[in-house]
Amino acid sequence: MRRLIVFDFDWSMADQDSDRWIFEVLAPDLRRKMKTLKDNIQWTDLVSQSLREAHARGITREQIEDALRIMPFHPGMVRGIKRLKEEGNTTFLCLSNANNIFITTILETKGLLPAFEEIVTNRAEWESSGLLNLCRRIDPHGPQHDCTVGCSPNMCKGEELDAFLARHAPAYDQIIYVGDGSNDFCPILRLRSQDMVLCRSFRGLQRRIDKDGEKLGLKCQVKYWGGAWEVEEIFNALS
Ligand SMILES: [Mg+2]
Ligand SMILES: [Zn+2]
User: Fold this and answer.
1) Which residue among 21, 126, 154, 177 is least crowded, i.e. fewest CB within 10 A of its CB?
2) DSSP 185-213
3) Domain coordinates of the chain in residue numbers?
């Protein structure tokens, strides 16, 4: 039995949104500005621009790392992932619209980084000045993805999941996808009847499943959850 568990990061594995959280902690006025501009500027570009503004006003790499380390993350999620990892037949993939620095900084703090086979996300890099330079996964000046399900321009999560599965053949016996956002809808359309989505209740993914799940032929089982302790409970019940 080979099992793959795919995790969205913000509000799925973590109990917060990392892109927003660091500004809530360090520069609430920039957080407000992002809320004002988010319908006009592509989200990854907006986070990148906000990081530049934070850097220009003297917010340091250490401050950003400290903010990430205190971001809400349920201990039940940590336990659930570690236990399944120790059992040995589960591969973990993180598929996220955040960035590699936010995700690895947080996963390292929780002792979860070694559990993940790959982290597929936007690229970010610390410059020696302390600026976190963030870029879309798909370069806006190159060829774009052709997803019609509604993924954001920086990345099609469905295409990325397919590419991961192609890199890790043969097929997994079961795929479990943990997600919350509307951009998690495209990848779950690619799941089979033996697969399962663990959908966080009352957020974009649930709304999208309600609206388009049947129409677009969603085949996997759907289980809803509210708190990470319930994901732990589901993980513990997997044999
Ligand atoms: Mg999310
Ligand atoms: Zn897509």
Assistant:
1) 126
2) HHHHTT--TT-EEEEETTSHHHHHHHHHT
3) 3-16+74-121+142-237
